Structures are given as C-alpha cells and as structure tokens.
Amino acid sequence: MKALSMRKRWFAGASATVAVAAAAAASAGVFAAPAGAVSAHAAASSTLTMESSQEPTVVDNFNPFITTDTTSIGAPTLIYESLLQFDIAKPTQAPYDFLATKFKWNPGGTSITFTIRKNVKFSNGKTMTPKDVAFTYDLVGANKDANGGGLDLATPAAKVKGNTVTVYFTASAYTELQYIGTVPIVEQSIWSHVGDPGKHVDTHPVGTGPYVLKSENDTAGIVLVANKKYWGGPWAKKAGPPAVKEVQFPTFASTSDVLSALENNSLDWAGNFISGLSAFTSGAGHAVWFAGVNTNSLIPNLRTWPMNNLCVRQAVSLAINRGDISSTGESGLEPPATNASGIVLPNFASQEASAVSGDTLSSSPGVAAADAALTGCSAANGGPFTLDSKGYYSQGGQEVDITITDPSDYTDYASDDTIMAANLQSAHMNGTFDGLADAAWYSDLAAGTFGSATSHWSNSAITLWGLYDGWLDSTLNNGSGSGDFEGLNNSTVDSELATLGTAGTAAAIKADAAPLEEYVAANLPVIPTVYGASFDEYNSGAFSGWPTASNAYESGSPNTPTNEVIVLHLKPAK
C-alpha cells in the first residue's frame, strides 16, 4: 500500500497575514513579470496570466516526471498530456478522455487496456503512437525516480496491440487509476536517449499538449504560446490551438505580491489561501471559489498520553469550535467538517455508510458534552476523569495536558491551533499551541514526536481508499512522514484497507469502505475539523468558462495536472 500525494501548502513569513495552501500564507508588493508582460496583458485579452505556486525564481527544467522545479508553477502539464484527467471536485465522476478514448480493466484489476486517441501529434510534428504510450509506462516502471505516483507496475509494464496499450501491475490496481491515468506521455525517439528520466534536464520540452515553450527566465518566469499542431482537446469540435493564445507564469517574491497582482488585474488566476480577499472580490469581474476536496483534521498522537485515551479524543472533538476554526482560522474559506467519519461531503455523499449518517459533528463547542465524555469514561478506558487542584481533568494522577504543534508560519493552522487550545482550556483540559520551524515540524511528524496533536490535511483523492489509506495504513508509519501520522497500528484496519483497495465498482467501494467509516467515527484516530479547499481566485471579466459551484467540471485550482482542463475551457471575454 502507498499513500496518495498530500496537499502541498505554501506560506510566507510568520509576520504575514496571507497564507497559501493546495493544493496546500500581507503588505503591498510588486511582482516580477517578464519584460512588458503587464502592458501586453492589458492589450491582448487572449493572454492568460496565472500563478499556481508563489515562487521567487524558476528552474529551466520542464521534465514532467519531476515534481519540483518548474513543475510546481504549473507549466509542464500544459505541454505534456496524459491518457486521462479527473474532476477532483466530483471524485466519483468518470474521468475525462485525453490521449485515451476509453479504458477497460481485466477481472481483478491487474491490468488495464487503453484505446489510444488517433491523429495526435507532438509539438515537433511527429505523430504520437501507441508505441510512445507503452514506452512511457515501461520507462516509469524501470525508473523509480520517474514513478511519482508509486505505481505497482509489472515488467514489462505495457504491451501494444493494434491501437490499444495494456498496462500490467503486480497486484490489483483499481485504486491507482488516478495515477495510472495521469502519467505524462513522452516521445520515445527523444526520451529513449536521455538516460535516467528522473534526472533529465528538459529545457526543450516536446509534448502533445495545447502549449509550447516560448521563453523561460529564472527570475522573470515562464511564457507559453498555443501549440498550432494541437489535436484540440476533449471538448473541441476540431483540431487546432486553444482559445487562450498565450499563458504567462510570472514569479512572485511573496504571497502578498500575489494578492496585489490580483487586485490590480495584472494576474488573472491564482490558487492561494489569502486572508483579506474583500478588496479583491469587490473589484469588477473578480471572483473566488473554494471547492472542498479533502479533510483537515487534528491528528492525535496515539503513542502518548493523553490522546491515546479514547475518552480524551471524544472530549476534544466535542470541545473544539469548528465554526470559529472555519470563520477565523481559515477566513471563512474552508467550511466545518460535518461527519465524524471524515469523508469529504458532499463529494462522497453517495458512499457515506448508513451507520455513520448520524455521527454528525457540531460546528459549535460542546463543553457540557466534553465534560460528560470524561466524567463518564468507561473502565475499559481507565474510568472517570476528575478535576484536579488546577481545574484540569486528570485520570490516575495524570493531567489532560495537550500540546498542539504546527509550523508557526502556516498562519491558518497556527490560528486554528490557537483556537482549539483555548477551546480545550474552556473544557477543563490544559491545551496549548507550540509553533515550530517548518523543518522541525516535518521531522517530528515523521518521527511521531510532534507533541499531543497536530493539524494536518488529508489526501485529495478520487476514492475513499485514498483518503483512508493516508490516515490509517500502518505501513506508512515508518519514519518517512508519508502517512498514518497518529501512529495507528491496527491489523483489522489494515485488512479492511486491503479489501477496499480491490473494490472495482461503486457498490463494492461503498460496502468495503463502511467498516472504515465506522471505525474512524467511533474511535477518532483523526479528529475532523474543516473541509480543505481547492483555492481559486480568478478574473471573470478577462476570461469566461471558469468552473464554479454550479458548474463544477473541475476544482478550480491552477495546480497540476488539472490546470489543463480549465485552460481548455477558457475563452477571452468579449
């Protein structure tokens, strides 16, 4: 088992009031753009200026298999395409057909056969063939550093038959579809000569995507122009370049510069957690949409007292003010979580187990209920708690002393944690927040030494397996910091995860996820707080076609790889 990619968070210094998240921290500033970019943008409405990650510099490397460098600002996924794309805002929806027109699993999910789209050309004019697709999967299978999705590929990984490519796995891979389908397809005649694909420096990218590289400057940013040889994309009636003729990715020294650029219309699209958006949203054509795509939680450290006691976890969940965390800590951008199972609602409403439908979470603190959870604690959990001389609950002489840790410059999480610490104090638990340096927090998180609890985001995934595996899979509790941060070690849960991992239909997923939903709701190995948002700030006056809550064809985030889905829907405003 493996964890799916976590939401990446970007942030500014601790003194800033703007924090950036997934996808994922204000004083005025001026952003660094390519020479003449701002004036050109004002004059040419077909130029889209976007930002998916605040970076002061970029690297001249468009290798689609590397998840750092320029990949983090979103350019490579407009150059290189994959077989499928997925709507993260509607995870149970069928994927979009890109370089594949259909797919079919074998019984058991150990192989998947893709029908490859015809009449697609690489930007250098060469035709893309099924051999290029099979070569790409073999390349990923043979080079671990290019296998960013952690696919369990067999050897050989793929075989061609006519216009189809079958990809093979060492075990059932139903749960890996999101990562199987989004492998970037490369040209065999080029990539067969680059050596290790995970180390290749790709300064002249050649892909099938809607854009080609025009310029790259380490301090100014990246400019892409429309690919004249583009096949058109899934929604076009005929081949040809996209409606957006140029895409600029300027660099930004800080997230406050991102906000300033949004406000003065020199930036069309960004994907940040930004407190104080009122000045932006009051401008003509300015809009925001924050689709919930994962679940933020207070992660208890089950290795140590007092969070290894179920009664304490229940009391903590009852005592915290999710409404305040949402409105104050997350500036009203992330709504309170509503179910103790932790599943993202309403995204996964069709897969909510009936047994947990009543396990609702209050958005208001319940001090009396928290008191009752402790004073009525069962003998199996150590018996009733009593108030000590300092006014805090204790059990067997041990005080309920809870230290919540997070990076102090993850300013939204620091605010969330401060709120929760105060809530615990009101409920007679000695709660405190300890802000750490980023490196120290990540190190403690991996080692399981992060204090009593920490706030953390969940996997953003198209399956409930992806959500629960990241939370509960004991094999991830291995010092790598890849998941199971609380330190759960439950063989029954591991077995249930494995069963869910082989579920190939919606009905099977719902049935196999039910015991995991019930376990989380009853035992609170994670304590859901708010639904994590896919942050999206955009200028509807410059372009039309943006995803919205009423037209959620994608989550709205400018991050990879789904930014291509959105750009292909955009049209310059008239």
How does this structure look, described?
- The protein has 15 helices and 25 strands.
- The chain has three domains: 10-75 and 209-289 and 535-572, Periplasmic binding protein-like II (D-Maltodextrin-Binding Protein, domain 2, 3-Layer(aba) Sandwich), CATH 3.40.190; 84-191, Dipeptide-binding Protein, Domain 1 (Dipeptide-binding Protein, domain 1, Alpha-Beta Complex), CATH 3.90.76; 292-533, Dipeptide-binding Protein, domain 3 (Roll).
- A seven-stranded mixed β-sheet has the order 10-11-12-3-13-23-14, with helices on one face.
- α12 runs antiparallel to α13.
- The chain is globular, with a radius of gyration of 24 Å.
- It is α+β, with helices and mostly antiparallel strands.
Name its key features:
about 575 residues, alpha+beta, D-Maltodextrin-Binding Protein, domain 2, Dipeptide-binding Protein, domain 1, Dipeptide-binding Protein, domain 3, 15 helices
Helix and strand layout, with pairings?
Elements: E1 10-11, E2 19-20, H1 37-43, E3 47-51, E4 84-85, E5 96-97, E6 100-105, E7 111-116, H2 130-142, E8 153-161, E9 164-169, H3 177-180, H4 188-191, E10 211-217, E11 221-226, E12 246-250, H5 255-263, E13 269-270, H6 278-281, E14 286-288, E15 291-300, H7 310-319, H8 322-329, H9 367-375, E16 386-387, E17 393-395, E18 398-399, E19 401-407, H10 411-426, E20 430-436, H11 438-447, E21 453-456, H12 464-472, H13 491-501, H14 506-523, E22 527-534, E23 537-539, E24 543-544, H15 563-569, E25 571-572
Parallel strand pairs: 3-12, 3-13, 19-20, 19-21
Antiparallel strand pairs: 1-2, 4-5, 6-7, 7-9, 8-9, 10-11, 11-12, 13-23, 14-23, 15-21, 15-22, 16-17, 17-18, 24-25
Helix pairs in contact: 7-9, 8-10, 12-13, 13-14
